[in-house]
Amino acid sequence: MPHCIIEYAKGLEDSLNVSNLVKAVHIGALKSGLFAEADIKTRAVPYEYFQTGTNDMPFIHVTTRILSGRTRQQKSLLTRQILAELKQLQLQQQLPAISLTVEVLDIERETYAKAID
Fold it and tell me: Which run of H or E residues covers position 8?
C-alpha cells in the first residue's frame, strides 16, 4: 500500500516523460515517510477525451488509495508531498496552464483482499 493512480491528459505526452511522472509520484509517496518503498504501487492512465470546465486545460490527477486508519494530518502530508514532486517537474513553465490535483482515499481494511501468485 498505497496504490497511486495517475490520470493525465494524453496530449501531455508531447511535453512530458510519463516515466518521470510515475517516478515523481512514487518519490512523493516515499517522502511522506508513511510507507516502505517496496509497498508503493504507482501507475499512469492517459485520457484522450476529457473536458476541464469550459476549456481544454491539460490535467494530472493523482488518486492515492491507502488502507484506512491514517490520520487527516498523515493524509494531508501525503497529498502535499506528491503535489510538491509534481511541481518539481516544472510543467507550468512548459505549458500555458495545467491543472495538478491530488487526493487520498481510504480503502476499508475489511473489504480489501490481496493475493500474489
Answer: strand 3-9
Confidence bin at 57 (pLDDT 50/70/90):
confident
Helix (H, G, I), strand (E, B), or coil: what is residue 19? helix
102 class by beta-carbon count within 10 Å (0-12 exposed, 13-18 middle, 19+ buried): buried
pLDDT > 90: percent of the chain: 70
pLDDT at 78 over 70: yes
Question: Chain centroid to CA 26: how far?
Answer: 8
Output the pTM of the full model.
0.91
> End-to-end CA distance of the chain, in Å?
17
Query: Is the distance from CB of 106 to CB of 67 less than 8 angstroms?
Result: yes
Whole-angstrom CA distances from 58 to 42, 51, 104, 110, 117 are 20, 9, 21, 37, 38
